[in-house]
Amino acid sequence: MKITKITALALTTTLATGAAFAQDRDGWPESFTVGTASQGGTYFAYGSGWANLVAEELGLTGGGEVTGGPMQNMALVHTGEAQFGMTTMGPAAESLQGTNPIAPGLAMTNACAMFPMYQTPFSVTALSSSGISSIADIPAGARIGFGPAGSTSDTYFPRMMEELGVDFERRNGGWSDLGGQLQDGLLDVIAFAAGVPVPAVSQLEVQTDVNIIEFTEEEQAQIMAAFPVSEFDIAADTYTTLESDARSVSMWNFAIANCDLPASFVYEVVDVVMSDNERMVNIHRAARSTLPENWDKNTVLMWHPGAAQWFTENAGAEIAADMIHGDM
């Protein structure tokens, strides 16, 4: 894991601060919940994994909870119903602006950035037997599964399809359920927005032949011009079906914390997750991007003070004071 060099004095301060935080548990919750998403998706596997890791390392009771994904997680963390959650930068921005469909008009400003997770690629999967091997092949009126209602996929992928001129019937559901519907012929296409490899796609590959459909260069450019996404390639070794990298677009994901949680608690949670990337990669391969140097991928959310302190001390982060919630 690459960490920016810090001086011996700063290192001493960091170790002392970490030790103090480890002993100072004033105000810590006895248990915690991490809002994830539906089973069969990357959020659930990744979120449940780091929740269990934190619970074990800090001697607390905690775990992942099935939710509707990023939009609902912003609401749950903002209200304190969940201590932690996971969101994507697009839904986070909409939630701050008060346009989260779960609570229209409510600016969800009490959900703070905690640590960078990974990029969410947008990808399309169809059965090989369907003959659909490109976006242009998707027939008019195709039944497309976009994931749970309010998820990143459901929020942005229908708009992307409309931007590309695809005519479709919109379907929602958990990723595992949608994978089963695709296999049973009840859906024509699944439009995934999830960290790769998506468990539901990996399962489909074992059971049947699928096409993982990439965007053309023109489609990729068109989507990037219309939405808050960036260029991304799904590596060929991600799925057995792929013979070469697949062209895509992506959006960054961040773990979030209720802004009122004690700084010492959030500091220690971040330390558990960010101090040993190998452990995180063992939970899910998407965690290869869960690295301290990616702290700067958050341009939307206020930082939790405890998280800001960890990245400042351990990753050389330069976080503006007006991007940190409350006082350090």
From TrEMBL:
<feature type="signal peptide">
    <location>
        <begin position="1"/>
        <end position="22"/>
    </location>
</feature>
<keyword id="KW-0732">Signal</keyword>
<protein>
    <submittedName>
        <fullName>C4-dicarboxylate ABC transporter substrate-binding protein</fullName>
    </submittedName>
</protein>
<dbReference type="InterPro" id="IPR011852">
    <property type="entry name" value="TRAP_TAXI"/>
</dbReference>
<dbReference type="Pfam" id="PF16868">
    <property type="entry name" value="NMT1_3"/>
</dbReference>
